[in-house]
Amino acid sequence: MTNTMGRRATIERNTSETRIHVELNVDGTGRADVQTGIGFYDHMITAFAKHGRFDVTISCQGDLEIDAHHTMEDCALALGEAFDQALGDRAGIVRMGDAFVPLDEALVQAVVDISGRPFAAVSLDFVGHMMGEAPTQMVSHVLQSFSVGAKLTLHVRQLAGSNDHHIAEATMKALGRALDAATRPDERIAGQVPSTKGTLTA
Asked: Which of 18, 68, 159, 195 could form a disulfide with 62 if both were Cys (CB 3.0 to 4.6 A apart)?
């Protein structure tokens, strides 16, 4: 059974490309200490944690001398894995959540289903190629990688926006708020897995 008072996880992911340490408290207040070596990526994850009310610590030593790809991908996988571990059998949670988030001219919707089935459908229309040292094309890949690690279904769509920073930040805020809604305990089904299959982990 999921312990809603202690939904925490610590993940170590070490490969020849990245060395990552992640700490997660699902029932946090939005504190974040993120050090990936990519400033804009730190900003993205910090916004996700702040608006999802998750406490997140991430440190990564990655092969940034090559490019940002491995660092961004592997951090997303590890953070997703932390959610998967922290939520346990998913008993007693709402399971699904959605959020619309505006940021000036940008508007992004995120919908999540903590289904046990990794899938991501992402529709974002960036203008440029880079945001600081973060490639814009990696935003979609980060979302896909997170869905794999967390074993959840994710749909993200941009409804408006012309500023890449605003689009990316609204995306991460929307993901945080949608995931916050989906992971909340539902007292009506305490101890029950919200699935007609009886499981969300098999």
From this structure: 18
